[in-house]
Amino acid sequence: MKNLFCLLPILLLTSCATPTRHVGINWDGDFDLETMRAMISAEVQASANFEVRDSLPEFKCTQEDFFGNGVSIENLRGHGCRGFRVLILFRPAISQPGTDFILIYLINPDGKIIDWKSCWSDNCVGGLRWKMRDVNSDGIKEICFVLIRGDTPEQLFAAYTVESSRFYPLVAEEKTYFEVILEDVLLPNGLLLHPLQPGRPMLVTDKLYEISVRVLNQSNKEIDLKDHYLWISNEEGWCGGGVGGYFSVETLKPGDHVDTTVTIRFSERMCDRKINFTIKRADE
To answer: What CATH number should be reported for the domain whose range is 177-281?
Structure first.
């Protein structure tokens, strides 16, 4: 089974003003998909919990308009029988082979999003689905990720209940933690690729990461960036998915810079810990 901390810098603000109280959302109602997405986005971004805000790259992935996309809400009983709910966002693959993706949010009785989990699966081995199941026969159903493969029995990937106002795994997905190295790269044409968070971050498999990179023109000539994008150069040691970082300018003058963001998921740990970046043409 292949399943962020967000690498974007965290800015800590201090103020003498009284902080605005975060009020949860009333999720009851017949909302269309666009309205529901807007409600979730606002709730996640307003959360005081960094771990909840950390889900934004994966939430953006569910906003792509693929056939079969949808949002569901299910009740989930927590410890002490408190009434929690689960928001389930499903983004099926649009190709074969491709990747199915499910993102779930835990909503407390006040209507606030307080936790999240996600699951990725290659559709060449089956279809990823979610189900409510009583996996430990205690009379309470859990939210589960399952793999469906024709007439064969469903394969259970993960099952979550609620304890201490968080998702608690009764069956946990297998994950691998690994360190990567982010360093500057100077291209032959004089472009310096500078990760805005250089160092050795610790990552985990099957989670989306946003890596921001500054591209600085250190040459003495204007460089064309039209129809180009930033991506990793050592793909032979990488397995996963992602989206390259396109540029907001078509050309870069000497001494100028432009920032862009690469979104990437690792389904396995990198063979080489160092992530090298390069600039590619869109038609390559």
So the answer is: 2.60.370.10
